[in-house]
Design brief:
Two copies of one chain form a homodimer.
Chain A (H helix, E strand, L loop, with lengths): L12 H20 L3 E2 L5 E3 H8 L9 E3 L5 E4 L4 H10 L8 E10 L11 E10 L4 H17 L7 E7 H10 L6 H9 L6 H10 L4 H13 L2 H8 L1 H19 L6 E3 L13 E7 L9 E5 L3 H4 L7 E4 L3 H11 L9 E8 L3 H13 L4 E3 L6 H10 L2 E8 H5 L2 E6 L5 E5 L17
Parallel strand pairs in A: 1-5, 7-8, 12-13, 12-14
Antiparallel strand pairs in A: 2-4, 3-4, 5-6, 6-11, 7-9, 9-10, 10-11, 14-15, 15-16
Protein name (chains A, B): Histidine--tRNA ligase
GO molecular function, one term (chains A, B): ATP binding
EC number (chains A, B): 6.1.1.21
Chain lengths: ~425, ~425
């Protein structure tokens, strides 16, 4: 007997039915906004990740040398791959480019609740627009997807921030600030105590007083005050954030957005608006997912300068939120019909099953040469709504029995006229 | 600029739309038979493949040592994984177990037409039934899937064989035959010349005369003659093959099946009925896909003896057949509406777009702050059926313009009542 690898999961049908319902909901929401499905390789050259994130990333990767001597990695995220794809067909692709895909990614990291080594994300991105409507459409898609899942504004919120507000604020202080370290410090604000947080800011170059002023500005989140403090560059960033929020309100996502400047997102490549989705009740304590603008990445991959913005809900953290809110889909099978054979009636049963499948129904028949009772048990186990009993004796009278599994009621109907013209006839149609 | 790995593919939206349509068709056909979706890891322990296929398999694998020192491989096929999953929950799973999944697999091999290092398959399997109806249901699913794609019995055929007929025939000769080598020789019959084929049979232990007799029997495919020649074991296998074909006929797949005993399938783990799907015109010269019975695998994986039968259409060879037959879906985008803004009309345009999306439509709006002409070009590029023009001047009169993109016809309608109660109103509803 072989064991499964740690951090990897087998999804059996019941659990998969719920996951499929959630993935379909996310993808349907994206499709209605005109995001187009793409599909992408599971392996890429390792250098793509090292160039983007530094040698340190290799420890978190499933990286290896292939039989042809290439250094390759299982893709830990989609963004570098879609950037590569945009660059490869830059001239041919009309802008804005709007892509969606759902697939697994892999990172070698500690396994914990809601975090696995193989994890699934739905990536949704817009390339080629710097306009605030692009950021807003990403927020609106995310809001629609979550409300389609049954979540409400009591369940989730988008904490929206802006990298340039933070960056320009740092520059507005009379200090030599390492912006990257400072942004990382902000990203840790909620995860460490206040002393450690201020210490990280001062490691990044702010004096202790400056760090306190910075934190006061950021937590008050008074955009007028911030614009006034920081000068024209901060003003421009504040203006962009406001434009995005206005567009998001027009697009129907306003009620879910709140300004939260201490939301910084850890990833280095973000450039403008960034946001994270949180459980409003706080019961799921970590960010559920996040997104934002990354206007420099395509150029750094060798392409024409191309603004970009995206979001990538992960299925595992999303399932924690949905389960907390009581909207995770039921983990059970659904079957429209079981066509049960008693005696030598396979030809008639098969004809009925085919006709019912022609109506788009899920229809099972006996493929195990089993008894009436065993077939009925199986039909019950797959939650068949209706069982059609095709028995030798009934057939002598040209009849089959239609049984409603919920009530146990049954009636006989002429075999020849079943299912007839109805797509999905049930007991109720014959009583 | 980074390059893609050899044998891996990027699927851009147009091509992906066609692939998605084909995958949906396969999965819908499987769902109607009550096959239940599962999902499975991309990585497994390498020993699982070595134990099943020998050390030689490692050369064809993306095999490596992970950061934790485990020998792992990218899954080259699904069967060992589903066997592992069946064994892991043997007691809890009610039989028959009927599973379906579509996902990529990986093999390090020579790239050629219709063969890639990353390739997609839809795997459909039944565990727990030795009855001929199980084999027949797999054939019937495959036939339904292909006819749903628009293929007819002029396009494809299932060449059906039986491992035990071949095995018992070898045993019926007075010779010391290595059955595995002999089956492999049969599998090569169509790929090598007659001399080499007979040579391979004689390497496997038949004399030259026996090899010729064997080949005569196999190619004549007269089941009565074969049953008579081989004794009771061959007779039993012939009986099983006939029962499967009878059931397949009842299940509606009869017209696609023909007995072809020289179809042996290369994989060693098949045990009973095996079959391959071929292009009837021969234009696609290789087998499109294949399947069959593998009753011993679960036990060899440490489980209770559990009969099994399955099929795994691959998307790349299937696309060759569909393209040859002219039924590969159109590689193009589909968009129901583009809501075009002229001037400061974003709020009204956004409201209309949301209402249309509420009706399940694919609706794009401007997210790039572009001119009328640029928006119209984009709408044309995504094949929008209807463009709703929300212009400042029209809105002063409380109107928007509805334009049919195919004919170019347009008319004004009251903005407030659009889209109204209709889910998908078009120009034709207002003219």
């Amino acid at each position: 007997m072989y064991d499964r690898l740690k951090g990897f999961r087998d999804f059996y049908p019941e659990e998969m039915a719920a996951r499929r319902a959630v993935i379909d909901t996310l993808e349907d929401a994206a499709a209605r906004y005109g995001f187009r499905e793409i599909d992408t390789p599971a392996l890429e050259r390792t250098e793509m990740y090292v160039d983007k994130s530094g040698e340190g990333i290799v420890e978190e990767l499933y990286a290896f040398e292939d039989q042809g001597g290439r250094e390759v990695s299982l893709t830990p995220e989609l963004t570098p791959t879609v950037a590569r794809m945009v660059v490869a067909k830059q001239q041919a692709l009309s802008k804005p480019i709007k892509w969606v895909s759902t697939r697994p990614f892999w990172r070698y990291e500690q396994v914990q609740q809601g975090r696995f080594r193989e994890f699934y994300q739905t990536n949704v991105d817009i390339f080629g627009s710097a306009a605030p409507e692009a950021d807003a459409e990403i927020l609106a898609f995310a809001a629609d997807a979550l409300t389609d899942l049954g979540l409400t504004d009591d369940d989730f919120e988008f904490r929206v921030s802006h990298r340039d507000i933070l960056g320009e604020l740092f520059r507005a202080f009379d200090a030599d600030v390492d912006e990257r370290d400072a942004i990382r410090a902000v990203d840790k604000r909620e995860k460490v105590d206040r002393g450690e947080y201020l210490g990280l800011l001062s490691d990044a170059g702010l004096s202790y007083d400056q760090a306190e002023s910075f934190d006061d500005l950021v937590t008050a989140a008074d955009l007028d005050e911030i614009a006034e403090f920081g000068g024209s560059e901060v003003e421009a960033a504040v203006g962009n954030l406001r434009n995005v929020l206005d567009a998001a309100a027009d697009f129907g996502a306003g009620e879910f957005c709140e300004v939260s400047l201490s939301t910084a997102r850890g990833l280095d490549y973000y450039t403008g608006v960034v946001f994270e989705c949180f459980d409003s009740t706080g019961e799921v304590s970590r960010s559920v997912f996040g997104g934002g603008r990354y206007d420099d990445l395509i150029e750094s991959f060798g392409g024409q300068p191309t603004p970009a913005v995206g979001v990538a809900p992960g299925l595992a953290p999303l399932s924690l939120l949905c389960q907390r809110a009581g909207v995770w889909p039921e983990e059970s099978l659904a079957t429209d019909y079981y066509v049960l054979t008693v005696g030598d009636t396979r030809d008639v049963a098969a004809r009925i099953a085919r006709d019912l499948r022609g109506g788009g129904n899920v229809v099972e028949v006996d493929v195990s040469d089993r008894s009436f009772g065993a077939q009925m048990n199986y039909a019950d186990g797959v939650n068949a709504e209706t069982v059609v009993i095709v028995g030798e004796r009934d057939l002598e009278n040209g009849e089959v029995t239609v049984k409603d599994m919920a009530s146990g009621d049954q009636t006989t109907v002429p075999a020849e006229s079943f299912p007839g013209d109805a797509r999905s006839p049930t007991f109720a149609d014959f009583e």
